[in-house]
Amino acid sequence: MGAVIFSDVHADPVAIRALASCIKTQSFLQTFGNVDLMVNLGDLVHRGYHPLETLEVIRTLSHEYRLVSVLGNHDHAFLNRLPVSGSDVASIYRHEQLRVSPLISLLDSLPMEWSDNGMLFVHGGPLEMGDQTLRLKFWQRLSNTAGESVTGYNYTAAMAFDALAVRGLTHMCFGHQHQNICCQKMPGGIVQKPLDFRRVTSKREDDEYDIEAARVLLDVPSLLRVGGCNGVEPEFAYTDFYTFWFIRISSRN
């Protein structure tokens, strides 16, 4: 099974459309494999200016693929009218229009996490810490030191691997912090694996997108944080649960 994973679209329909087009190209399918599943790691809304258009793309993708979504902290904040930094007056105005649209149902009743093939999919982190807002899973943040923070509870890689092991899980795929990272539990300890992004050579001259990818073998327990699918170089990932690819769209013509 091949899964495309994305996170932190933040009301950027151009970015998620680029992803949707990219994964249909022959060069993508020949390089990575078929797409049987799409996983949205949360934060479809806030900060950007086109939430309605973004959710329209998500609705279309849900008709084309099996789509699994989990709740992000900005999704939760929007639904519950909680103040979160990062959205200006224009963004707030556009999001208020979303409240009267039936598309808002795409954000209702989303789970905090989902797991498959030994991998946990979650927006922020894996810890069970009660119902205090900044300790909920979609607010948790990977850090070098553990402790409370005004932006969400910070957990360490060691804490995450321990939480996964208790549940019989091996890997965790998450977003939230907009920067890709791979931490692996090796026999000698936990290491951060350098990500070697390389341009994927197109097999077709008429391909619209240039992409770069970094490959990770899932032969040891791994924490896989996916970069944000927004802006001029949207990022996402692909996995067959044996290999994991961090992917960046480096050109959107």
Describe it.
With 253 residues, the protein is α/β, with parallel strands linked by helices. It has one domain: Purple Acid Phosphatase, chain A, domain 2 (4-Layer Sandwich), CATH 3.60.21.10. The protein is built from 6 helices and 15 strands. It has helices at 13-22, 26-31, 51-64, 73-79, 89-98, 157-166, and strands spanning 3-6, 37-40, 66-69, 113-116, 119-122, 141-142, 154-155, 171-174, 181-186, 189-192, 198-199, 209-217, 222-225, 235-239, 243-252. The strands form 3 sheets. It has a 7-stranded mixed beta sheet with strand order 3-2-1-14-15-12-11, covered by helices on one side. Helix 1 (13-22) packs parallel to helix 3 (51-64). The longest helix has 14 residues, at 51-64. The radius of gyration is 18 Å and the shape is globular. It starts with a strand and ends with a strand. The mean pLDDT is 95.
Topology:
Elements lengths: L2 E4 L6 H10 L3 H6 L5 E4 L10 H14 L1 E4 L3 H7 L9 H10 L14 E4 L2 E4 L18 E2 L11 E2 L1 H10 L4 E4 L6 E6 L2 E4 L5 E2 L9 E9 L4 E4 L9 E5 L3 E10 L1
Parallel strand pairs: 1-2, 2-3, 5-8, 6-7, 8-13
Antiparallel strand pairs: 1-14, 4-5, 9-10, 9-13, 11-12, 12-15, 14-15
Helix pairs in contact: 1-3
List keywords for this structure.
253 residues; Purple Acid Phosphatase, chain A, domain 2
**Number of individual domains:** 1
Radius of gyration of CA atoms, rounded to a whole number: 18 Å
Q: And the CATH topology?
A: Purple Acid Phosphatase, chain A, domain 2
Question: For the record, what CATH class applies?
Answer: Alpha Beta
**Please, how many helices?**
6
SSE class: alpha/beta
Beta-strand residue fraction: 25-35%
For the record, the CATH architecture stands as 4-Layer Sandwich
Element order: H for helix, E for strand: EHHEHEHHEEEEHEEEEEEEE
Measured distance between first and last alpha carbons: 30 Å
What ranges have pLDDT less than 50 throughout 5 or more consecutive residues? none
Mean of pLDDT:
95
Inertia-based shape: globular
Biggest sheet features = 7 strands, mixed
Strand order of the largest sheet: 3-2-1-14-15-12-11
**Beta strands, count:** 15
Please bin the fraction of helical residues.
10-25%
